Amino acid sequence: MRKSEIHAAESVACLDKALGELKDIWEEIGIPEDQRLQRTDAVHMHIKEEDGVTMLQLEKDLRTQVKMMLKEKSARQSELKSLIQQDQDLCDILCDDLFPIHPERVPSQQQLQNYRQHINTRNQERERRHAEFVGMKRQITVLMEDLEQHPDTSFEKDAVCEDEDAFCLSVENLSALKVLLHQLESRKAESGALCGSIRGRIEELWEMLQVPEEERESLMQNTRTKLQRLEELKEKNIERVIHTIRSEIVKFWEKCYYSPEQRQAFTPYHSDDLDEEVLREHELELERLKEDYAKHRELYDAVSTWSSNWTLYQELEKKATDPSRFNNRGGNLLKEEKQRVDLQKSLPKLEKSLKAQIDQWEAAHCKEFRVNGQLFLQYVEDQWDQHRMEKEREKQERQMKKMKQTEEDLLYGTTIRTPTKRRLAGTPTPGKTRKLISTSSMCNSTPNTTLRSICSSPSMRPPLSSSKVSYALSTTYFT
């Protein structure tokens, strides 16, 4: 039997089994006969062959339908993914729950329509809450300036100092903001009433004590003079105070690994108009940085540890390729190599531990942890890539230098570049001993003979026998 016939038989068996199960279910739930016929006809309509259609045409139609359905599936899943991302962004802003839908299943058209409507509703709610927040923030800022009050709690700093788009527009936060606005309005009313009461009491005492008008005016003038003197003193010292605060801000920028873009975002730092408003903004920025560093100090210290170890590892790598390192004494070379190997093993472990800490931090704060404007893991990977590129560049430079030296040797001849081995003092070579002996024995010879003996060729040759020496002397004498 062919495989196609086997598959056809299996399909028929599965169909019979499914119809049998349907029949049992219909019996259990008590479906009437007419409904059974309708459902059976519906099944028959889906599996019966169309009249006048060939097998090839039927296969083509089925493939076309499958292609269209796959395209529809892909479109729905893409739209669902986009809607989920929009919903997630809105939930982060509104501090609300996601729309209840399974992200892996293929949604129906009705589910997508409901999801679109849900997103539109949330967008409208976000705009309403944002407008309400901006209005209350302006009122709170004006009231704090009138009361000469600075944000104390973290909530007040988030509401007044942070970016408007970064504030969580939850129902609880807006309610707390309304309470804060009401408190500030009450304080301003109380302060105004107190000022009016004090002013009225002073006037009553002036009238009661019959203080002359000249003395009253003199007192007011002294008060104005003191106020003006304090304002001038403040103007003189405000520049020094702002520069001191700026130095502190730079320190915390470095501790918190702020990128140049983040530093540039604090525009008052680059302002030349140093007034009270600029001073106040600097104080708020410094307080925010201190709070941020204290809250996440453990993570920042871990990143600082990695950075210091990485810097030390790079220095040891440079020393390992320096030829002058062999001149070190005291075992430093061995210590540095051991330290370099230890760092090479410990750095990946530290990076793995930091990744786990950063994942926990990002899950808790719903934002990315960045180092100098980059994701930490990307920052680490870039550092390693730069290190490898630098090593490769140094390797190529050494190869080029070696090739250049080889070309010079081939062109001009090889020269000895390594120092010769030094001989021990007081131990002359045998050749020199022989020369000294021959020189002393021939001290009575003629100058030419002595000169020839001393300036003889340095090539190795066996010593002359006594007979040959006497023969040479006699020959020289008679000559």
TrEMBL record:
GO terms for molecular function: microtubule binding. Keywords: Coiled coil. GO terms for cellular component: cytoplasm; mitotic spindle midzone. Residues 213-240 form a coiled coil. GO terms for biological process: mitotic spindle midzone assembly. This is Protein regulator of cytokinesis 1-like. The lineage of its organism: Eukaryota, Metazoa, Chordata, Craniata, Vertebrata.
